[in-house]
Write a structure and sequence with these properties.
heterodimer; A: about 0% strand; globular; B: mainly alpha
């Protein structure tokens, strides 16, 4: 009887706290969304009103038609190109490397891998300044390559994929090798199909990471037309914010959020899996 | 003589095999060498030089470090102190909550009577997928002194981002908004792996909810907890986007974090002082490493 009572009390306390937090968490996004459909006179009216007096698409029309000071369509396409290329390149490079470190026999294989892993753990702050110099020497400043390529070097993804490849039975490769398959055939036809889920997870993470990256793009991209949408947000405050064009600011912010949020809606289970993988493996 | 000839064959075979792995590990190794290993070495080297980012660095020994750490008349000394202090304020203000809030939410979501778990989890997680810069634009509206819902709903007249401690509150709030979801999922999955038998046995012994949490749940999720604490701390030390977008470092430099100074010194308008900036980033990197090592040590000695 006593236990039952505690159960019910804790249940309702949980519901109340969860609901309050959920409202606080959802509210800013909803408010931004509804504000993006308000007219300018509606926006600058004081007093709280969630829904627009009349729903208008003006803010989106204005923002999307800006091609000079804040070319958001261009930024959006830049981001799509950059994040997609980064992800594809990452999957190829990482799965090849993971195959090498997990399934080929060579001298100092594990030592080499763990030395690389250890070096990569030193905080990345130190690399930023020299990386700019390298990207500059390569002639990549203000080109998509500056934001597509350097991130491929990260070792965390190799670690994750390698871990999964190590778990697959050795007999797969051996029997294929008996049949005369080359290492590359084994990689492409046997191992990659088996670890597809892990590759999907790392792709999704790479895509969102690349889409949302802020510091590095603001350093290597300073031509307005070359910016990513995430870095472009920095300029918007001066362009729209100073003139109280809040509806247009919100429309822009909302456009920047769409791809990653959509990705989550369609691939929710992979997002959750990816977080479990990250910690589960090391546990 | 014949014997040694035959022995050469396997050696040669092995040598050939040694080249083959480079087809696989080679591409990543090159990226690693060019964009992680070389920059790291060069970053250490640059911290001992006077350098404007594009010319040849001039070796100055420990001079940058001496200026940053021991010359109160230098602006670099003041920038480093202010920047590091503000970064520490950010770490202290966000990291504990980044761990405690999702931990509490995870416990509540473990409750057998609570439904809509997936929905709650999605609501807490989605802000983490929004870029900090877009999130800042949204939160600036929420805390807008005249038009924002916070002031309008609470009837307050606080001018949020231009006064302390309000400026920090806005930055903390928007950081937590994006930061709790990932940790929440990690805790939930760790908790769901704990056997029910442990709790039932504890209940038979009359253990209360609090006792069960500290004696069963916490020890069982020790590793994921450590992982999230270390990762959240390291991430918080690199804070840059939130203060840049929300306060531009103000009011009166009180939210001007170290990464902002480092970036301005190296890449700002005017002559680049990249050597000095490199020295500051080495110091920041060392702080992160020392604190992570410290956290590992405390967690492991306590959890045994």
């Amino acid at each position: 009887m006593e236990r039952n009572k505690t159960f019910i009390i804790t249940k309702w306390v949980s519901y109340v706290l969860l609901t309050i937090t959920a409202i606080i968490w959802v509210f800013p996004a909803i408010y931004a969304l509804t504000t993006s459909f308000k007219t300018q006179s509606d926006v600058i009216q004081t007093g709280f009103r969630l829904l627009p007096a009349s729903w208008v698409m003006d803010n989106y029309a204005r923002v999307l038609s800006n091609t000079s000071s804040a070319p958001i369509v261009r930024w959006f396409l830049n981001s799509v190109l950059i994040s997609t290329s980064h992800t594809i390149l990452m999957v190829i490079v990482v799965s090849l490397a993971a195959f090498g470190y997990a399934r080929l026999d060579f001298k100092y294989r594990d030592t080499m891998f763990f030395v690389i892993l250890a070096i990569s753990m030193f905080p990345a702050v130190v690399n930023i300044i020299p990386n700019y110099m390298i990207v500059h020497r390569l002639g990549w400043v203000n080109t998509p390559l500056a934001v597509i390529v350097p991130g491929i070097a990260a070792v965390g993804n190799v670690f994750l994929v390698r871990q999964f490849m190590t778990g697959l039975p050795k007999s797969y490769d051996e029997s294929a090798r008996m049949d005369g398959a080359s290492d590359f055939t084994i990689y492409l036809k046997i191992i990659v199909p088996l670890i597809k889920p892990v590759l999907i997870v790392t792709s999704i993470f790479s895509f969102t990471g690349s889409w949302n990256d802020f510091l590095w793009p603001t350093i290597v991209l300073n031509d307005v037309r070359q910016l990513t949408i995430t870095a472009g947000m920095l300029l918007l405050q001066d362009i729209y914010g100073n003139y109280m064009m809040i509806g247009q600011l919100m429309a822009s912010a909302f456009l920047a959020m769409i791809p990653t949020t959509l990705l989550f809606i369609f691939a929710q289970k992979y997002f959750i899996e990816s977080l479990n993988l990250n910690t589960g493996l090391k546990g | 003589m014949e014997k040694s000839m035959t022995e050469e064959i396997p050696v040669q075979k092995k040598k050939k095999f040694n080249l083959k792995q480079w087809i696989f590990i080679g591409p990543h190794f090159i990226f690693f060498a060019v964009f992680i290993f070389f920059p790291m070495i060069y970053g250490f080297y640059a911290s001992f030089t006077r350098w404007n980012l594009l010319s040849t660095p001039q070796w100055v020994g420990l001079q940058n470090y001496q200026t940053i750490l021991g010359d109160p008349s230098s602006s670099f000394y003041r920038q480093f102190r202010t920047g590091l202090f503000n970064t520490l304020v950010f770490v202290a203000g966000t990291v504990p909550l980044q761990v405690i809030i999702p931990l509490i939410l995870a416990i509540m979501l473990q409750h057998k009577g609570v439904r809509f778990k997936g929905l709650f989890q999605a609501i807490f997680y989605i802000p983490g997928l929004i870029s900090v810069s877009a999130a800042a634009i949204v939160w600036l509206l929420i805390f807008n002194p005249r038009l924002g819902p916070v002031n309008n709903l609470l009837g307050s007249e606080v001018t949020w981002v231009v006064n302390q401690p309000y400026a920090w509150i806005v930055i903390f709030m928007m950081t937590l908004w994006g930061a709790i979801g990932g940790n929440l999922i990690i805790y939930r999955s760790a908790m769901s792996g704990i056997s029910r038998d442990l709790y039932e046995a504890a209940e038979l012994d009359g253990a209360s909810g609090t006792v069960k949490f500290f004696k069963i749940t916490l020890p069982m999720i020790k590793f994921p907890l450590l992982y999230t604490i270390v990762m959240s701390t390291a991430g918080a030390f690199n804070v840059f986007a939130q203060p840049l977008m929300v306060t531009q470092g103000g009011p009166e430099q009180t939210t001007h974090v170290l990464m902002m100074y480092i970036r301005t010194l190296a890449f700002g308008q005017g002559q680049s002082v990249a050597g000095m900036a490199a020295a500051m980033s080495i110091l920041l990197g060392l702080v992160i490493v020392v604190i992570a090592a410290f956290q590992f040590k405390i967690m492991y000695s306590n959890a045994k």
